[in-house]
Amino acid sequence: MSETAVLLFSIVAAAVPTVLYIGIIYWVDRYEKEPWWLLVAAFFWGAVPGILISLFFNRLLSAPLLVLLGSDLGMATAPWLIGPPVEESIKGVALLAIFIFWRSEIDSPLDGIIYGAMVGMGFAMVENVYYFVETFNQGGMEAWGVNIVLRAIIFGLNHALFSSFAGLGIAIARLSTNRNIQLALPILGWATAVFLHFLHNFTVTLGDGFILLALLFDWGGIVLVLAIILWAVLQERRWLRQYLAEEVALGTLTVNQFSTASSGRKRVAFLLATLLSKGFQANRRAAHFFLQCSHLAYTKHHWKLFQDEKSAQEIVALRQEIAALANRLRQ
To answer: Is the per-residue pLDDT at 208 higher than 80?
Structure first.
């Protein structure tokens, strides 16, 4: 197989699972989809600047190890000693930027997990292409196939797992009124990401006999994140039911609108029925109506926590917009 063919097939082998994983992540965000441009920006940071900057600092900081420990031991040590803090710090820059400049987009712990996972997915996809090509050049077709299965499937969610903890820490800090939590959770989230990354790199460095141990650590972490995601989704649903129920009494929503807006399943059914009966534009209006209902619920929760004037003003504006959208939906 030519070098060009190896590169193309490696790109496909890295991209196809990534698209699948991103689709799952996007589906999980049921009630308020994150802005597509910010998700793309997070992915791009991981895929291009994140990779290049990490490569530079990995090589820079690994150089003293090679001198002190020798080439063989230094090369074996750098992946678990240097790689995790460098790569999780660089990926974390994107999450920190979202926290500073677009913090209004972080409405729940789930949002932090999603942004962290997107950064990790971008990083993993490009890193996988590099390793797929290198493995083929060194070991041929059989080694190439094994590496694809290991990196893209068995360990395919690793970078998303690591950086999702950093995102979770930032999201919890964003939603907390406790100053100590605001300061500590981003650091704790980053430290958890580094530790999980270290566990993986250290165990696989020990040799093939420790692959099962790495698998246990990694998938144990994934199961934990899935449990946190389930908790976060259920929490979002509770917020919707609690805060939108108040809008029925105020006349912003009807009982039927409240029932549909507070259920992910009913939303999907309503949107599909609207698309089939009234067309694409009506479907888009309904989707925007549900999105603003979610915005209203999350903004009311934010106001309950912080009692800030901005949230109070936004609540008034959202109620007016939702009432207007509700009237259009009934037409």
So the answer is: no
